[in-house]
Amino acid sequence: MLVHVSNRAGALVNPFDVMQKGQAICAVGWDLAKIKQAVAIELPADGCKRQAIVDANAQLAQQSNGIIARPTGMEKYSTLSVSHTTCFLKSLESGCKVMDEMVPLEQLVCKQDDLERMLSQGWDWTVIASKVDEEVPHLAGLLTQAFNSDHAIARAPTELEVMMTIARTYSMQPEGHKDLGKAIAEASASMPPCKDYIRSIGEFVGSFAGGETFKFLQYLSFIGKQFGGSTQFGEEFTKLLTHCDWKQPSTTFPLLRVALACCQITAPKSCIKDGFSKMVTKADFDKLRKKKMSEKILMAEDLMQAAWQVVEESKLGIEKAGLPFGRFQIRLILHLLQKEAKGREGVEYKGMEEIKNKFEEEFAKCGDPSSATPAAAPAEPTGEGDSAVVAVKSLKEASDSKAIALQSHKHIKIGKNYTFKAESKVWTLKDLTSTHALLVHQPLCGPEEACEILHKELTKLKEYSKPLPQLVKQDVLNKMSPSHFLQGELCRAQAQAAVYERLGEFDLQVSTQQQVYAGKKFNKGKLTLLALGTVHLMPLEKVGKSQCLMKSSQLQKSEALVIQPPKQDFAKQSGFFCPYWLIKEGSEEQGNMEMHMVNCTPLFLVPSAADDGSAGAKKRKMK
Fold first, then answer.
1. In angstroms, rounded to a whole number, what is the distance separating the alpha carbons of residues 563 and 54?
2. What is the pLDDT at residue 424?
3. Helix intervals (H) in 315-348
4. Which residues pair with 518 in a beta bridge?
5. Greater pLDDT, 272 or 390
6. DSSP symbol at 481
7. Are 489 and 474 in contact (CB under 8 A)?
8. Which of 3, 82, 109, 328 has the fewest CB atoms within 10 Å, i.e. the most exposed one?
9. Residue ranges of region Disordered (predicted)?
10. How far apart, in whole angstroms, are the C-alpha atoms of residue 95 and residue 525?
């Protein structure tokens, strides 16, 4: 049996937890009946995937300081549950140092319990086919979360393990659809003990875990395996670790936070109460927040930034460079808090310069296998554990004063417009430097104005949501001027006046069926009926074929003057009577009038009906 790589979000098992749990079971006796829900997955058929699991377990054994047995090459399955127990038994059988005192295996199996049977015969397992793992890659992670939570009385998942679960879930999301909030929700679904403050845990992952590689989580997991068992942070420490504000515009202190977590993870037993690490307390955070500590914590952050750069540039990997860097961080924090006597080392350093020199000395040796310093085992075994999103920030972003300013002032965005409180000028945010914000104001008349403000003064800016004030362009003004805009209306009014001026009285008779008769004889060409009514100016494309149109040289090509007939009701004696609208089109034989366009004024031609012989172009016969 190997440990599946999804177990505890890729951390597999903690060697000291394996040793501690195994020793505790040895003390009370092995009982096969108490092993429940033993679940494993077949190793993949694919050689590369299979080797990745073997390599991960080999690396775990190498980092365990002789506690975990190395893979034999005969393994067929990887465990999702009962992993600590399985590892202990495998290590016990392989002769690893899993007991405080070297007790012969023969002596252990002579006890009246199930140890000999478990070693020789094993026990029943539920085995999932490797094909299922290939088809549903998320399943293994979900199952390990569920088993770890279900067995929380014996070994509750720590906040660091929940962080790694969130990170692993986030990493498995497809590119372009990564959502830290969803990863947090998935981790919360397994009901870990830290569920009530899992949002703070997720925010630490998003802001201070080292970007999408989550290198600081891998580093903390490695350090935890080297120095001791798994301890809980607790809600108060976790929230302070994530949300503590040191009021520095240049950095959010990502490595200081990682160092505080490192101190908490590696706390000696004397600083662990009921499974919770108390090495760093709220009082310590309050101390670090004091004004007199500002310069010191900035110096510590800078030293750790420089040291981490050395670690990354060395290409040695966490398994070699992690220990000297971890000791460096722990020494710095304990020195700042004046708690060096309480640490594992118990050495008090004169200052941060001496601590830096110690790191350089140890780091110079870590590349040489013959001089590698072994991991410090815990002085005493630790106690058992007790029973809102986003993009992930890189280390550079967490230390970039510009990014910090934007994060701290959610309403600030480059290119947006703002006003200062109690002022009317509108300013545009052009740029943010490491210390200042550059704003410009463009008066309606006059040269551009510029000003710079410090990041802390960004709170004075109020977002201006309206369009930026500016002068209307001259071509727009010309188009909207009365002489241009009312040109069509003026033409319509003149046309209306021209029509009304041609009103005339004729001796005509009209029947109730709206038939028109001459009341007397007219000489040929003397009777002309004009189209009278209300004149409307309309777009040419909206004019119907049957509508009555005037003509004018004053019109735009896209416009038309339309005469609408007046409303008239002989029964009610309302409206006014215009005989033009009562004549109808007739045949050549029946028609006694013709349609013409006549000059109403020199500017306008009006449709009209005239008796035969009148001047003008003929349109059609009317009667």
1. 93
2. 86
3. 318-337
4. 508
5. 272
6. S
7. no
8. 109
9. 365-384
10. 133
Asked whether 128 and 41 are in contact (CB, 8 A), the reply is yes
Across 361-422, the runs of DSSP E, i.e. the strands, are 417-420
Residues recorded for the chain: 623
> What SS3 class is residue 552?
strand
* Helices 180-189 and 159-172, axial angle in degrees (round to 10): 130
Q: Which DSSP string corresponds to 146-191?
A: HHHHHTTTTSPPPHHHHHHHHHHHHHHSPTT---HHHHHHHHHHT-
Nearest to 341 by CA among 286, 279, 421: 279
Q: What are the pLDDT digits (tens) for 434-444?
A: 888 999 998 88
Sequence-distant (≥ 6) Cβ neighbours of residue 243 within 8 angstroms:
200, 203
What token pair was written down for 256? Answer: 């200081």
Tokens of 123: 């026990």
Beta 568-569 vs 574-575: how paired, if at all? antiparallel
Q: Report the C-alpha gap between 259 and 129 in whole angstroms.
A: 42
Q: How far apart are CA 56 and CA 3, in angstroms?
A: 9
Q: Residue 459 is encoded by which pair of tokens?
A: 């709170």
Q: Name the token pair of 402.
A: 């510009």
Q: What is the DSSP letter of 585?
A: B
**Secondary structure (H, E, C), 408-437:** HCCCCCCCCEEEECCCCCCEEEEEECCCEE
- Reply yes or no on whether the pLDDT at 378 is more than 50: no
**Residue carrying the six token digits 């199930």:** 114
Higher pLDDT among residues 61 and 239, named by residue: 239
Taken in order 105, 111, 115, 121, is the CA torsion positive or negative?
Answer: positive
What does the block give as tokens for 155? 């070994």
Q: What confidence score (pLDDT) does residue 325 get?
A: 93
Beta bridge partners of 450: 440
Percent of all residues in the chain with a pLDDT value above 90, rounded to a whole number: 21
Q: Which residue has the tokens 């420089």?
A: 306
Distance CA 238, CA 256 (A): 14
Contacts 24+ apart (CB under 8 A), 305-308: 305/255, 305/399, 307/356, 307/359, 307/363, 308/255, 308/395
Round to whole Å and give the CA distance between 221 and 205.
13
- Locus of tokens 């094909």: 131
φ/ψ of residue 514, rounded to 5: 60, 45
